[in-house]
């Protein structure tokens, strides 16, 4: 597998493919302020070895995809939704199994609602309902350690100091760990990789979070027709487990698989066997049909 970049309408989108085109495609959508490296290479390889063509990619303002000035994104939330479809078009993939995490889970929900013909199955990980409900869901807010990052984010690093930016990136992740603990050395490895391959880390850490919500009105989770799997950490401090339970309750036929001790993150290495088996089984059922 090698990174590739397509340019459409002046926009660069970087992606990587694991496996072979003859296999069913699994599209991995990362969270906000995450490049594709947080879907780790070994995780992708294991999915590919199970008979899937795996695609991971850099959102705009992450990794090697197009970057805007910090604080001035030149795109919309809708653009982030259609970018992965542009990559699939370039690969000649008409339908895919979509796996979205956090903000990527919101993108995945929009794709399933607005482009249902492109979605074979849906997997929503560490995320929350992205469209309103007819009733008050009364979902719990983030835990105090996460709320503190919103109310008192602290000073930004010197964005020209590579080591300072890596350290900052690690500390950003720390409050989102679950009861399995925070693997700082491993997080530092991923943070360093992200910093070294990202065009503008200040833009990565800023721009996704200031986009306007342009989700079409009238959409509801019960309109999702794709078979849906919900993976959710039992100790997610950003979206407590009730958020995953709400997704499973409102999407027809959805299945919830709790990830014991996981926080707000890609499935941690300790739970790869569980998460990968659940994704493979979920996608296999549809392929068999």
Strand content: 15-25%
- Which range best describes the helical content: under 10%, 10-25%, 25-40%, 40-55%, 55-70% or over 70%? 25-40%
Number of strands: 8
Shape-level CATH architecture: 3-Layer(aba) Sandwich
Please list the strands of the largest sheet in the order they lie side by side.
1-2-4-3-5-6-7-8
Order of helices and strands: EEEHEHEHEHHHHEHEH
Structural class: alpha/beta
Beginning-to-end CA distance, first to last residue? 29 Å
User: For the record, what CATH class applies?
Assistant: Alpha Beta
Largest sheet properties: 8 strands, mixed
Number of domains: 1
Q: How many DSSP helices?
A: 9
Mean pLDDT: 96
Q: What would you report as the Rg, rounded to the nearest angstrom?
A: 18 Å
Give unreliable regions as ranges. Answer: none
Anisotropy-based shape: globular
CATH superfamily: Alpha/Beta hydrolase fold, catalytic domain
Look up the CATH topology.
Rossmann fold
